Amino acid sequence: MDLKSFRDSLSGSAAPTGLGSPLQALWRAAKDDWDGAHGLVQDEQSDEAAWVHAYLHRVEGDLGNAGYWYRRAGKPVAKGTLDEEWAEISAALLKS
Asked: CA angle 92-82-30, nearest 5°?
């Protein structure tokens, strides 16, 4: 799946099958389901989940908590828009 297909899937009522938790969380976040997205990554130990977790706390406006999760993910704190960051993370995870 590429980024365009992933974006297009947002018109549906369910996430595409076969996505890992971080991508499922991004899909839910794009559908304004912050709690559902957060629940998918909050206990997962991967760097990918930590990166999505950071993004979610940035969406929430909790920049201190987001900073912690960016460090856990080994990623710099995002400087662009939330939409740009969503696309960057999505594209990276879809390639892996």
From this structure: 75
Under 8 Å CB-to-CB from 96, ≥6 apart: which residues? 48
Give the C-alpha separation, 10 to 63, whole Å: 26
- pTM > 0.90: yes
> Beta-carbon neighbour count of residue 83 at 10 Å?
9
Round to whole Å and give the CA distance between 40 and 50: 11
Closest CA to 92 of 23, 9, 11, 46: 23
Q: Could you list the mean pLDDT of each consecutive 10-residue stretch along the chain, which spans 96 residues? A: 96 95 98 97 96 98 97 97 98 95
Would you list the domain boundaries of the chain?
28-95
What three-state secondary structure class fits 70?
helix
DSSP string spanning 20-36?
Answer: -HHHHHHHHHHTT-HHH
